[in-house]
Amino acid sequence: MRVISIPCPHCRHRVRAAKSRTMSDMMKEITYMCQNPDCGHVFVASLEVLRTLSMSATPNPDVRIHVSQHVRNACANQLALFKND
Ligand SMILES: [Zn+2]
């Protein structure tokens, strides 16, 4: 599986995730260490659920996630089909 990361914001070198902390079911903070020995930058980034692209077949009623506009448009189009029947 591919690991998603961002380069060091200072030197653009690769970074390594050193640790992570779960802030909620929707967000984690990840501590990254730049792998450039001349830089040595250590920083925290966040990983956050932003929006739904495909609806869950087992939705958790306690979870609220923004639904992408194209999904809302697709649902509206499907509902319009029922109105015309
Ligand atoms: Zn760096």
Question: Mind explaining what this structure looks like?
Answer:
With 85 residues, this protein is an alpha+beta fold. The protein has 2 domains: 1-49, no CATH class; 51-85, no CATH class. Helices cover 18% and strands 34% of the residues. The chain has 1 helix and 5 strands, in the order βββββα. It has one helix at residues 69-83, and strands at residues 15-24, 27-34, 42-48, 51-52, 66-67. Strands 1-2-3 form a 3-stranded antiparallel sheet, with no helix packed on it. The chain has a two-stranded parallel ribbon with strand order 4-5. β1 (15-24) and β2 (27-34) form a beta hairpin. The longest helix is centred in the last third of the chain and has 15 residues, at 69-83. The chain is elongated, with a radius of gyration of 19 Å. Bound molecules: zinc ion. Zinc ion binds at residues 8, 10-11, 13, 34, 36, 39, 41.
